Amino acid sequence: MKFQWPKLIEIVMGLVEDIYKRRQPLPSMDAIYFIQPTKENVIMFLSDMSGRMPLYKKAFVFFSSSISRELVNLIKKDTVVLPRIGALREMNLEYFTIDSQGFVTEHERALEELFGDEDNSRKGDACLNVMATRIATVFASLRELPFVRYRAAKFLDPNTATTFRDLIPTKLAAAVWNCLLKYKETSPNFPTSETCELLILDRSVDQIAPVIHEWTYDAMCHDLLNMEGNKYVYEVPSKTGGPPEKKEVLLEDHDPIWLELRHAHIADASERLHEKMTNFISKNKAAQIHGSRGGGELSTRDLQKMVQALPQYSEQIDKLSLHVEAGKDMKIPVKIAGKINRIIGELGLRELGQLEQDLVFGDAGTKEVINYLRTKLDATRENKLRLLMIYAAIHPEKFEADKASKLMKLAGLLSDDMNAVNNMRLLEGSSDAKKSTIGAFSLKFEVPKRKHAARKERKGEEETWQLSKFYPMIEELVEKLSKGELPKNDYPCMNDPSASFGGSSQAASVRATQGRATQGQAPHSVRARRSTWARPRGSDDGYSSDSVLRQASSDFKKMGQRIFVFIVGGATRSELRVCHKLTEKLKREVVLGSTSLDDPPQFITISEKMADLPAWKKGIHEVLVYALHNLLPSPQVPCFIN
């Protein structure tokens, strides 16, 4: 789980230490061990507690996942240590939560290891097995047994070369199901029948979501502010008149304003923050007096009113001023929202964002991309790279032969920069596009003049805010899964209960569950025009945002069966947002899991590393691209390429 160590130490313990580091003996104190059930860890624990002078008085041991019988017997054999053990339990907590509906397995190099080196399948299998163990602990800790569905490999026939990449979701689904069967057989509290649904995908299902500009408050913060995880560092004026002081804050669920606005469009969030600050200042006595008097003296009556309102004022102004400028009278510098809007203007992101979305929905193409690269010479390297990655995902044929080199020169990028673009085809190898047996990268485009879109515009949903039309593919997949409309051939079930799974029987079961959950509730409209799922009302006065925390912790058991989606190769903040949105829309808690949660700069860095393999491992097309970029004196097309 995701612990905040300072708070944990303050509340529960006096000291946290690493089992692999040399530690001072504390024979008068009890120790809590939270360790993975590996042989190395068990031997280290036994060494700590053996002998006449053990490191600790008593040991309470908690394993992060199931421990093997062999290791249990190893502990039992040590008759010296056995009386010194106060507890020996399996906690099933080999995952890190990222918010109330998201978790990661901490496999940050999964994209590189699983999609990069095609030849090292043994290493890939080992990675997937560890991943499966960690995913299984999620269900063990929640006492859920899922129907395990996965994205099937395409074109499994004797004439098609099937690669390790094609089989990643299949292999992971099988490994997860094996782990769940062990829990089912050994754990008395584990369900005996399926209670939820799990859909296993990989990053190839949506290559655009990791790099497109997502215009919500949460995504913009992590994309533009150089945050370290959820930690935001900002400067405040020094109380002594010296240089500005740096302060750190965590943008997490404990901040009610962040919780309320994180999934709102940046323009909407800015408006609402301004409303909150204005209303707060107009209603709080301390703020009114502070702003109206300026540098003048305060009367005794004013001082009394100010003191009475001060505790509430100080608490709320700290919350609000982190996100929005309080105004000149309040002497608070521009904070998060203002800084983001300034960066958007400086980098010209509105125009770039419009081009990105036009590309995705088929309203722009090669002409517009070339025009942008020619005219926007001040565009940053990263933004040009992200544009080309989106373009490559939609129009891969535009990067064949010497076309990639021409685009690279037009964008003013180096060959090393283009590795991220070229490696989009490593992900495409697992997509729905049919591959030839020699590994060439191609898609069918029989009608060049036809509108070429990577997304269909969703009916019943209007674009309230500019640049809010884009949606990640998992939104469509989860909705189909919930309705029982996800094709069984494309997304089979590892523990298929009947031939009709994914069809009428399963859909009826889900609808029945939802019906029981929503009895007595008003019908939920799926045609909501505004993002009401991200905007609880009644909080514009700057005081009542704390109610959002209570709403966030509502009883999900009143809803239908949970839906879990796991993405191998990293998830995005837009996908996490969609899970929160669909929870309200479908009346089923949708939980997102992944190997990591990647912001665009991280994804680009990882994509570039995937190209650090020898050229002979990349297939015929990759060898040609490598040669064109690095070996030939000038771009030219080999005679055998059409």
Describe the structure in your own words.
By secondary structure, the chain is α/β, with parallel strands linked by helices. Helices cover 43% and strands 10% of the residues. A hairpin with an 8-residue loop joins strand 8 and strand 9 (245-250). It is globular. The protein starts with a helix and ends in a 12-residue tail after the last helix. Residues 1-5, 306-310, 326-334, 430-448, 499-554 and 612-642 have low confidence and may be disordered.
Classification by helices and strands: alpha/beta
Strand element count: 11
Overall mean pLDDT score? 77
- The shape is globular
Oligomer: single chain
Which features characterize this protein?
alpha/beta; 3-stranded parallel sheet; 24 helices; 11 strands; globular; disordered C terminus
In short:
It contains 24 helices and eleven strands.
Show the helix and strand layout.
Layout: H1 5-11, E1 31-35, H2 39-49, E2 59-63, H3 69-77, E3 85-90, E4 96-99, E5 102-104, H4 110-115, H5 121-142, E6 146-150, H6 168-186, E7 196-202, H7 217-224, E8 231-236, E9 245-250, H8 256-261, H9 266-283, H10 285-293, H11 300-323, H12 336-347, H13 349-360, H14 366-375, H15 381-394, H16 403-411, H17 419-422, H18 424-428, H19 473-483, H20 504-517, H21 546-552, E10 560-568, H22 573-586, E11 588-594, H23 600-609, H24 619-630
Parallel strand pairs: 1-2, 2-3, 5-11, 6-7, 7-10, 10-11
Antiparallel strand pairs: 4-5, 8-9
Helix pairs in contact: 5-6, 7-12, 9-10, 9-11, 10-11, 13-15, 19-22
